[in-house]
Amino acid sequence: MTPFQQNAIPYGSKVLITGANGFIASHIIAVLLDLGYTVRGTVRTPTPWLDDYYLEKWGPHRFESVLVPDFQKPNSFDECVQGVSGIIHVAQALPSSPVVQDVDDAVSYTVNGNVKLLEAASTQSSVKRVVFTSSIVAAGYPKGPEFKLDVDSWDECVSQDARSSVDRSAYRECKAQGEFQAWKWVEKNQPAFEFNTVLPWFTVRVKASV
Predict the structure, then answer these.
(1) Is the pTM of this model over 0.85?
(2) How far, in Å, CA of 41 to CA of 115, rounded?
(3) Pairwise CA distance, residues 139 & 143, whole Å
């Protein structure tokens, strides 16, 4: 039995990656293409150079970009999830984006986008796995000797009134609430696909030596 035959998503399957022109997503796409998968990547604005790059490096019919300008719009993911076996949600909206103006708007955008993607995925029997890129901040910050960090840990903003805080972080609340509400949706709706999240601590960009 080959390693690919042991995978839940067989070799040659199509995987959807959101935020395909981002730093982390670009590395995920490269790994998937090297393994033999095909990739459909979402972008918020037309990015023709992205398709050209993957065409030149991996050849035709391996990568395609699709335009999803606003994650909150009804049916925004309906077309791009069709025919995919796996979904990796990497895209993240923060206040620097023109669609959000403050922390509350950023959190709402993130949560709504996550839920709409899960809803769209649940309509496709082909989808076997869905993975969200979260962050270690969703699990909380160490506070005193009694601090506990495990699979049940959540940042305090998911259980307290975050609006009462004078020092709010859009990134922290988006990642915490985005993942928390996604897990709540999965628990309530029990989709056929397996759902998981990845919580990186930090991202390092390494410049290769010549």
Answers:
(1) yes
(2) 18
(3) 12
Q: Identify whether the C-beta of residue 159 lies closer than 8 Å to the C-beta of residue 91.
A: no
Cα distance between residue 176 and residue 139, in whole Å: 7
Closest CA to 23 of 91, 83, 88: 91
Write out the two tokens for 115. Answer: 């839920």
Residue 28 lies in a domain: yes
Residue 161 covered by a domain: no
Q: How far apart are CA 10 and CA 198, in angstroms?
A: 21
Taking only the tens place, the pLDDT of each residue in 22-49 is: 999 999 999 999 999 999 999 999 999 9
* Residue ranges in the chain assigned as alpha helix (H): 3-6, 23-35, 48-58, 103-122, 170-189
Q: What's the domain range around 130?
A: 3-138+170-198
CATH code at position 114 = 3.40.50.720
> Total structural domains in the chain?
1
Q: Do 106 and 157 contact (CB within 8 A), yes or no? A: no
Closest residue by Cα to residue 127 from 204, 200, 40: 40
